[in-house]
Amino acid sequence: MPRHIAGHLQSSADGSAVSSLLPETVSWPASEIPLELFSGMPEGYSYSAFAFENIVYGAVLLKDDDAHFVESAGLKNGVRFPVRNLALNFSSRFGRFVLFAKAHAQWASVSRFCGACGSPLVDANGNDEVREPLDDHAHGARFCPRCKRIFFPRMSPAVIVLVRKDNAILLEHNVRFPGNRHSLIAGFVEIGETLEEAAVREIREEAGIEVKNLQYVRSQPWPFPDSLMLGFIADWASGEARPDGVEIDHLDWYTANNLPEMPMRGSIARYIIDTFAAGGFSAT
Length: 284
Hints:
This protein is an alpha+beta fold. About 25% of the residues lie in helices and about 25% in strands. It is built from 7 helices and 11 strands. The protein has helices at about 5-10, 15-20, 65-70, 85, 95-110, 195-205, 270-275, and strands at about 45-50, 55-60, 120-125, 140-145, 150, 155-165, 170-175, 185-190, 210-220, 225-240, 250-255. The strands form 3 sheets. Strands 6, 7, 8, 9, 10 and 11 form a 6-stranded mixed beta sheet that branches. Strand 4 and strand 5 (about 150) form a beta hairpin. The radius of gyration is 21 Å and the shape is globular.
């Protein structure tokens, strides 16, 4: 993002400065970025277009060694800024824009070649060879000129569950979490599973317990890298909670006034935990 905006955000004490940003303040005109940067060659870049409030943007996931792109696209005055910090309030206008952009940038990076024949994919929108009618909002669709397949942006559904037992909730420390951060039990939905089956399975696998009264709470797109998080609450039914020793190295029951280090603000995990701590989700 532009250097002066990044400096303003870094000096802000809370997330209000992020939520008040406008999408256009952290975007560059497409006309200033050379088209030759985007090619089907392995060293090339790919972008995915998406519409946000009737404006079409293009998102690119830069590589670790992206000096060539930065210089060629005239981004020398831009600085790196953590995407997660920009989504502190994912329900705000700017937070949603960031999640859209990150999701499409990730899609662009993994949809450069056809998964069936290996040919380079091209933009499906406006392509005369595409026989399937595309909706006006089908930005990001990719087309294989060789085998004629169309690929649409993908999301991976994942469940995340707050498990209650009396006045406490189960929080776990994943081996990948920094420090003492704890969060809710979560995992990806497997092929052939319902959301409910995935939630029960993940709880059983990671904590060794059974649950009841599973209820849906809300969802959140979480493009790290491509998840759609589906939040639930459930009541403990039986079993003694213990970590699986593989993904989870510690878990315990915590009350609202005795919580460990929490997930980042803006995540659905933090929203659900904060709702519990504020007196929501009272036990049935």
